[in-house]
Amino acid sequence: MNHWVHKSAILAGVVNGEPARALCGVIFVPSSQGGGSTEDTTASLCLPCQSVYAGLPS
Ligand SMILES: [Zn+2]
After folding, report:
1. Which residue ranges in the chain fall short of pLDDT 70?
2. Residue 17 alpha carbon to ligand 1 centre in Å
3. What protein residues have CB closer than 5 angstroms to ion ligand 1?
């Protein structure tokens, strides 16, 4: 299960170990091992994140 997090937040998490907040509100530290960017793996994207992302104004 992956959460959708902004790329800059993922970078900060991977590089600095800073916690990031996913669209669904879950706070976690992204890692290069997964749980970060989900743009290429939408099939395993957290459903709340998916619905929030889909509802964002373009
Ligand atoms: Zn999520």
Report:
1. 32-43, 58
2. 19
3. 3, 22, 24, 46, 49
